[in-house]
Specification:
This protein is an alpha+beta fold and 388 residues long. The protein is built from twelve helices and 15 strands. Strand 1, helix 1 and strand 2 form a beta-alpha-beta unit. The radius of gyration is 21 Å and the shape is globular. The two termini are 14 Å apart.
Length: 388
């Protein structure tokens, strides 16, 4: 029998795009735990000021992406492949989640995603600074922290890359995701510039996301894209040489739920961008664990996961984050590239051994953590009722 609201079980609500797979996967996890379906609130209703919340509800916020109508309201444009407009998106998104937070609080409900932390997580400069000040290892960056110089275009980026150790750098739009607006740039003296990116520029100078990795070989091409991206805000960080797996650059997405690293996937690529939608492929996690343990010098798999948990601890009001973990050549050291508020979309991936989420996907682990009031444990709805 499914629990009733009066049985002490959490009453869940989810803010999302209702036809989206993220909402479906979350509802599947809710059902698998033996709980009543989460009440669904559309992003369109949130943005239109029509969302209502109920006392005692636990409210999850899902990504507003992959919906054309929502994208128009946030970005102000009709073409979801366009790169420009992220500063406006950020302004409207953070305003919306702060208003959502007030509505949830006023209703006597609980929000799983702190609005102020979301504002930091969706600004790469702010996020990098928070991690750095917490002594979480991150790539060196001249664009985060107090006193960071303005980045108004290619001339500023070129000047920053003239500093020692910055001849290879990632240039990213401050509010981007999924490698949108990212360039991996290498310089080798006056006029010697090349870049790898998924950004395409048309004859009118407009920028578009592409599923094809391109290589730019002239400073003029690179400068044109950077100058077009700059009005939305840019973040620059040192390009750290990554460890490899079978000759391909490798990094990891590690999901942290309620403070514990529960899931991990290896991403490998022949390009600097390992995102799976850009041609990256899942690698061998067991091989990564073995390489890390064999590396010596204090390296261990447990230490790598602990770095991810330290990164997540910088955002204690956010129930789940996805941490991009960058292994250095030789697997002896790790750095955190980014922390993602909606980094848990890894369908079919089950929990790490010893994580407490064995047999659960990322959504199931989050439900288990809510049921136990702490880090996830593998608890089905039936087992939970048996203990109660």
């Amino acid at each position: 029998m499914s629990p009733s609201p009066s049985s002490g079980e959490p009453r869940l609500a989810v803010v999302g795009n209702l036809a989206n797979r993220r909402v479906r996967l979350f509802q599947d996890a809710v059902a698998a735990a033996g709980l009543p379906a989460a009440r669904e609130i559309a992003w369109l209703d949130v943005l239109g000021g029509r969302a209502e919340f109920r006392p005692g509800e636990i409210v999850r916020v899902e990504s507003p992406g992959e919906d054309a109508a929502v994208e128009r309201l946030l970005r102000g444009g009709d073409d979801p492949t366009r790169v420009e407009g992220t500063a406006l998106w950020y302004e409207r998104f953070t305003a919306a989640v702060r208003e959502l937070g007030r509505a949830v609080r006023d209703a006597g409900a609980r929000l799983l995603d702190d609005p102020d932390e979301l504002a930091v997580l969706f600004d790469k400069r702010l996020c990098h600074d928070v991690l750095d000040r917490a002594s979480v290892p991150v790539p060196p960056s001249p664009t985060s922290g107090p006193g960071a110089p303005p980045v108004r275009g290619w001339d500023d980026v070129r000047a920053l890359m003239d500093a020692p150790g910055m001849r290879r750098a990632f240039v990213k739009i401050a509010h981007g995701s999924s490698a949108s607006g990212v360039l991996a740039i290498e310089t080798g003296g006056p006029g010697r510039v090349r870049a790898t990116t998924s950004v395409e520029r048309d004859a009118a100078g407009r920028l578009f996301n592409s599923l094809r990795i391109r290589r730019l070989t002239t400073e003029r091409e690179v400068a044109a894209i950077v100058d077009a991206l700059a009005p939305d805000g840019l973040h620059v960080e040192r390009w750290l040489p990554k460890a490899t797996q079978q000759g391909r650059a490798a990094d990891l997405r590690v999901v942290v739920v309620a403070g514990r690293a529960t899931h991990a996937v290896v991403r490998t690529s022949s390009s600097p961008m390992t995102n799976l939608h850009l041609g990256g492929a899942r690698g061998d996690l067991n091989a990564v664990r073995a390489a890390t343990e064999a590396a010596g010098g204090g390296a261990s798999w447990a230490a790598a996961l602990e770095i991810c948990e330290r990164a997540a601890a910088c955002f204690p009001g956010t129930h789940c984050v996805g941490v991009d973990l960058l292994p250095a050549t030789g697997w002896r050291r790790f750095a955190v590239g980014e922390v993602n508020a909606f980094g848990d979309l890894l369908p079919g991936l089950t929990g790490l051994p010893g994580s407490g989420a064995e047999g659960l996907d990322t959504y199931g682990a989050q439900i288990a953590a809510l049921l136990t009031g702490g880090p996830p444990r593998t608890v089905t709805g039936r087992e939970h009722h048996a203990r109660a």
